[in-house]
Amino acid sequence: MQAATSQTALHRFFEFSLVGMMSCGFLAVAISGRLDLPTLVVAGSAIIVRALFASGHLPLDVSSTSLTVATVAYVGFFPVDIYYLSGDFLRATVHLVFFLSSLMLLRARTARDVFFMNLVALMEVMAGSLFAEGVAYLVFLGAFLIFAIAVMAGSEIRSSLSKSTRPRDFGLPGMERRLIVVSGMVFTGVLVIGGLMFIVLPRTARIALQNLIPIGYHLPGFSNEVRLGEIGEILQSSKTVMHVRSPRTVDIIGLRLRGTALGEFDGKRWFNPSTKMVPVNIDDAGFAQVGYKHEGRSGRSVEFEIQLMESTGDTIFLPGLPEHIYLKSPYLLRTEGIDSYRTGAGWARGLRYKAYSFVEDRPPVTSLPYVFLEQAERLRYLQTPMMDPRITQLAAEITTGRFNDSGKASAIEHRLKTTYGYTLELPQTASADPVAEFLFERKKGHCEYFASSMAVMLRVAGVPSRVVNGFVASEINPLTGWGVVRTSDAHSWVEAWIDGDGWRVYDPTPLSTAPPESGLWLNARNYLDAAEVFYRNWVLGYDIERQLQLAGTLNRSGHGWSLDWSGLWSRWKTRGPLMAQVLACLVVIGAFLYLVSLLWHLSANRRHQARIARGNINPSDATVLYQHLIRLLKKKGFERPPWMTPMEFLKSIPVGGVDASYLEEFTICYNHLRFGGRVDAAERMSVLLKALDEHPHR
Predict the structure, then answer these.
(1) For the chain, which terminus, N or C, has the lower number of CB atoms within 10 Å?
(2) What separation in angstroms does the CA of 246 have from each of 44, 243, 249, 323, 367?
(3) pLDDT band for position 683 (50/70/90)?
(4) Which tens digits make up the pLDDT trace of 103-141?
(5) Is-contact 212 349, C-beta < 8 A?
């Protein structure tokens, strides 16, 4: 006869699998940032309550009547949500679905309920795939697959057991562990088959559906209007917004990636009142010409590869003097007069493109080197609002003795960079004149205030100027070779028109004094970023081009399998300390998990013994007590084969091995409790276990 695990263990396994599956589905959507706070609170609270119920810390009994009343009430609330709260049918529908699924999760008992929860979790994971922009989604997808398999397996076993009320064997020893192993095997099989399909089939659904998905949160600072302080707000974050690299030897650190230029200032905000978007022709190969060769300038043409994240909106960020862009987008729009580029709504999310730019040996310009600026444009870039007269006096003081526009710009840049301090601290209250407050009172601020102050003083001094918002790369991941650009790298600088030279870049912001990050956290972040790059390049961005590249790599690697031991040793010497730190972390985490599992096992045994001592006994406890006997006899050298019944095992023990009378009585009590339902036998079994432990021999 096969030993069985308890129904309590099976129930716990099923409940935790259900909670895990619903959590993965919920998190797959939540990480996209498209769920509002009420939805996050309601759905997250339902999962937490169900988890507490699964662990036995919280009773949960939601009646069908309460569920029906809540459902009908929310259906009545649905039109109110559409017209007055969400203002959108799709958002209101999302609220409805998550609310109803939360109610069902609290109520789920029957096989029909479980089927509904499986369907809801699957739909959440599918919805998350449309919004996914990071490797975290891949983690939740894998975990969802394991939990979903476990839920289906546990549901089938529960359904089979519910058809009979007679106490019976319903599994093998360690059923929950076996179910986990089976779930892992099925997951591995699905992963292998899915991996083969992944290699054969390129990704197309994301491109086909991305225009149907509403655009979510975007970083401020790259639209046609920016208020002073908005760039400072995003500088507080370290979220990755793009990756950039160059096949040639180009220093990515310090590379400016120009986003948009703003030409008019009202004292508190920079804006472009009426910008005309001009379509740029994209040829059949995907190339768009956005500039011309820059004869007469000292420098070189460089290819840059840029991978945007979703939160950067539809802005195309370009380094240096752009000449051509290669991208897979049906649209490319140029903002007339300020030479910024956009792809149109929806197409820049996760876009990967190449920019062929001219990089000068001296600080680069960002437009064509026209000798003269048209009069209308000149007047536009010289306008100033009503402002503090001290600004005019300061501009005159700084530019005294400077007889050309280049000298004036350099003098103002030098004064701001050497006299004022850099800080991310934002003003506590809004100022009527932010530029004057920065120049004469606070005398410290972030890049927005430096750029705005310089642009205003240049205009006062008769030099056309505008403010540019973009990013400055400050970090390279040594594992991938890609430059990592974060929200904290957002930057504002100035473009000043210099007759005979064109728009020239000036950056009056002093360098930050914050120390660079180092240590284990930086290494861990590099590994996470490397996983993000791999996920974007080979999952989200896996197309025909990537497919051919992968096939070529596999073909080349198949021609030779020899190892470059010298190169391997040099790489080990370089990355050895980092690998040692990672290995140490894995060892610590493994030891911690083992300790937690050991404590959980000991706690479970104590709870079980305490329950039996209180007289709260059920027939399945016979199996637990018999397992204690098996472990006790194994220590004494008597191991029970799994095919033996308890009585056969009793007869197989040699005479004199242990006290036969104790062992025979224990086996009879086991049968009485397990199959006869005599709960009084449990107490006698506990006494016999203690006796066998203390007096094992005749």
Answers:
(1) C
(2) 43, 11, 7, 15, 21
(3) confident
(4) 888 888 777 788 888 888 888 887 777 666 666 777 888
(5) no
What mean pLDDT is predicted for residues 160-170?
Answer: 51
pLDDT at 171 exceeding the cut of 50? no
Give yes or no for a contact between 491 and 467, defined as CB atoms under 8 angstroms apart: no
The amino acid at 76: G
Residues 6+ apart with CB under 8 A from 467: 261, 262, 265, 270, 451, 452, 455, 492, 493, 494, 495
The residue whose two tokens read 């894998």 is 142
SS3 233: helix
What residues have CB less than 8 Å from 187, skipping those under 6 apart? 142, 145, 146, 149
Among 364, 263, 382, 375, CA closest to 322: 364
Secondary structure of residue 462 in the 3-state scheme: coil
β-pairing verdict for 465-472 and 490-498: antiparallel
User: With 50 as the cut, is the pLDDT of residue 85 above it?
Assistant: yes
The DSSP 8-state label assigned to residue 114 in this structure reads: H
Which has the higher per-residue pLDDT, 667 or 206? 667
Residue 128's closest CA among 18, 24, 37?
24
Which DSSP helix (H) or strand (E) runs through 209? Answer: helix 205-209
Whether the CB-CB separation of 260 and 468 falls below 8 Å is answered with yes
**563 has pLDDT over 50:** no
